[in-house]
Prior knowledge:
The chain is α+β, with helices and mostly antiparallel strands. The protein contains six helices and 23 strands. The chain has helices spanning 2-21, 38-44, 129-133, 174-178, 219-226, 307-326; strands at residues 49-53, 56-60, 66-67, 91-94, 99-102, 106-108, 115-117, 139-142, 147-150, 154-157, 160-163, 184-187, 190-193, 197-199, 206-208, 230-233, 236-239, 243-248, 251-256, 280-283, 286-289, 293-296, 299-302. The strands form eleven sheets. A three-stranded antiparallel beta sheet has the order 1-2-3, with helices on one face. A two-stranded antiparallel ribbon has the order 4-5. The chain has a two-stranded antiparallel ribbon with strand order 6-7. The longest helix is centred in the N-terminal third of the chain and has 20 residues, at 2-21. It starts with a helix and ends with a helix.
Amino acid sequence: xxxxxxxxxxxxxxxxxxxxxxxxxxxxxxxxxxxxxxxxxxxxxxxxxxxxxxxxxxxxxxxxxxxxxxxxxxxxxxxxxxxxxxxxxxxxxxxxxxxxxxxxxxxxxxxxxxxxxxxxxxxxxxxxxxxxxxxxxxxxxxxxxxxxxxxxxxxxxxxxxxxxxxxxxxxxxxxxxxxxxxxxxxxxxxxxxxxxxxxxxxxxxxxxxxxxxxxxxxxxxxxxxxxxxxxxxxxxxxxxxxxxxxxxxxxxxxxxxxxxxxxxxxxxxxxxxxxxxxxxxxxxxxxxxxxxxxxxxxxxxxxxxxxxxxxxxxxxxxxxxxxxxxx
Length: 327
């Protein structure tokens, strides 16, 4: 009994070795038949002996030698360029050559197993540079994000790529920003205005920050130095009606006007931020003039020298002198 078992094991070992030795791709037109287990192969091929090896169906003849797998349905291909018929989506049969090709608006993928769009717009999914170049000559396929983007030194403007990078545009180095606008730098892969400049509202250029009384074209230039109260009025930086210009050493800012009667909850809401004598305090929920100041046009002005205390004694003395003379 043991001898019979030994013989069977020996013969099986020889057969398996023969099969392994003959597992070669001597069929140049063998079609890949994907599988997960042996059962997948039995439903796809007509051969009696088939195994799922390395996720591909492998067929054998009765002698245990690898043979061509015969599909259950008419022989088909799963690569572009293979023999017809053509089951791949967007593929057709080139009747003159008998091979599968992609339709007019598609092209073969790098693995030749799919037909993908031939033309891909900017910001759309891509697999190959040729897809992007067919739409925009200065674009490429970003292999990390797998989308069409503008090439280096070009920036996207609507559906085209223009040389250089505009304000707010994607960049790699300062030179790309300077190509389109002066006084710009590339920071965190984005073109912004350099220090001392601010972007025009339409993002077309960088304008110099200006101070009080200096020439301007947009209020943003003034607000950078004067604060939110700064406006460009008749080509000059000034403070708007609700602010007043205040000098702080060598600079001027626009300080919010605080008027007598303005509502408040604490004294600090009635104080000006610049280092001048405070004139109001919060009294009864409203800003009121402190002692020594009087209201004038809703502002607190310092009282003049107390004339009553000085003039009254003089008048009294004069009246006494006159009284004596008359009497």
